Amino acid sequence: MVAAASVVVAVGTATGLLSALDDGGGGSDEARPEVTSSPLLAPLPAESSASPTPSASKSPSPSARTTQARKPSRTPSPTSPTSTEPEAKQAPAPGSARLYRYPDSQVLDWVSAHRDDPRRPVIETEIADRPAAVWFADYSPSTIAARVRAVTAGAAGAGRVPVVVPYAVPDRDCGGASQGGAPDLAAYDGWIDAFAAGLGSDEVIVILEPDSIALANCLSTGERTARFASLARAGRVLKAANPNARVYYDAGHSGWNAPAKQAALLRQAGAASAASSDGVFSNVSNFHTTADEIAYDRQILDALGGPAGLGAVIDTSRNGNGAPADGEWCDPAGRKLGRAPTTNTGEARIDAYLWIKLPGESDGCKGTPGTFTASYAYDLAR
User: Fold this and answer.
1) Burial class (CB in 10 A: 0-12, 13-18, 19+), 309
2) Which of 173, 297, 331, 351 is flagged as catalytic?
3) For the segment 41-98, what is each residue's pLDDT rounded down to a tens digit?
4) What would the DSSP string read from start to end of 92-149?
5) Is 326 a catalytic residue?
6) Which of 90, 148, 165, 360 is most buried (most C-beta within 10 Å)?
7) Active-site hit among 129, 211, 297, 315
8) Catalytic site residue 351?
9) Low-confidence residues of the chain, pLDDT below 70?
10) How far apart are CA 88 and CA 353, in angstroms?
11) Catalytic annotation, pick one of 104, 331, 351, 363
12) What is the dihedral sign for C-alpha 268, 272, 277, 280?
């Protein structure tokens, strides 16, 4: 099967996307994450395919930033991975209640400003009230520690677990719509040091640089080696700063690289070392089914080696109906929310289902890339 890779598009600077669950602490205006959306991903030229099951989509799904879409989902259902995706409207599983909903996001702003909109109850209940990741997609060394701390301190105060996404690696998105990041790896290393300083001491999940490993084919061999060394360092720095931080590395998705190929890249980036990694993440801003991602991630973990405790997290935000058969990645019709965010998956080696990409933030077809689009959100949630 041939599948295209996904690329990330950053829209503006990344403030806190929507994050998590119930009441969470905010932070001062100066310290709060500044951006509105999670970057998007766009399809690239075809790569070798690696779908672990016959049901996997043949074409790449977009990721949810500005170009391509890979996303997290909501609370898990006890059904087996081969069953159809559950409807989004379900009672949160116990693990969902542990995840943090950062109280500042585009969807929350929309809900607050549109109390009389007939779509508001569905969008509020099915999307706004769910935990989601907070993205930090701008290179801002002077403020990043305080902005990260605003999220982690708020979560700690609420007794919740935040999900944060550092997204500032140099040459990100291979010069595509989400291009940007730190000016060079030395600057990035310093930015990561500051990011780590904001992690606090409580549990936090770190989704380290979506697309940074799966989408590294635009770099020369030397550049790729240097990036992977920097990512390995980043994992060590994050975990040393907060031993309760769980750091996950980019595994692409089930329609991208073959598991053995992706595992080899991950190993070079430090993902097999307990000093830097807790495992891998997949399907960010994409639409591949949870069943396909579970099978794919397990194959990667088997090929990766490393400590037995390494696991995987899956973005289930928009994968309720799987990837479109025609490979459309830009706000494709007929998609729906996936499983709700939770840390109780009931699946061996699958640590969490997360909403890393915020449902309703457009890929650029139903609205301006990265902006919350109520019609799109409603279609996903109803």
Assistant:
1) exposed
2) 173
3) 544 333 333 434 333 333 333 233 333 333 323 222 223 333 334 433 333 444 455 9
4) PPGGGGGB---S--HHHHHHHH-TT-TTHHHHIIIIITS---EEE-S--TTTHHHHHH
5) no
6) 360
7) 211
8) no
9) 1-97
10) 13
11) 363
12) positive
Q: What is the value of pTM for the model shown?
A: 0.80
Q: Which amino acid is at 203?
A: E
Q: How many helices (H) and strands (E) are present in the chain, helices listed first? A: 8, 9
What pLDDT shows up at residue 369?
Answer: 80
Integer Cα distance of 71 and 40 in angstroms? 10
Residues 6+ apart with CB under 8 A from 60: 3, 4, 5, 6, 43, 44, 68, 253, 255, 256, 286, 323, 327, 329
Angle at 68 between CA 189 and CA 359, to 5 degrees: 95
Contact 183, 291 (CB under 8 A): no
Do the beta carbons of residue 47 and residue 257 sit within 8 Å?
A: yes
Q: Can you give the three-state secondary structure of 53-65, one letter per residue? A: CCCCCCCCCCECC
| Residue 327 vs residues 70, 95, 144, 150, 369: alpha-carbon distances, Å | 13, 33, 36, 38, 19
Is 363 one of the catalytic residues? Answer: yes
> Is-contact 365 328, C-beta < 8 A?
no
Q: How remote is the C-alpha of 373 from its chain's centroid?
A: 19
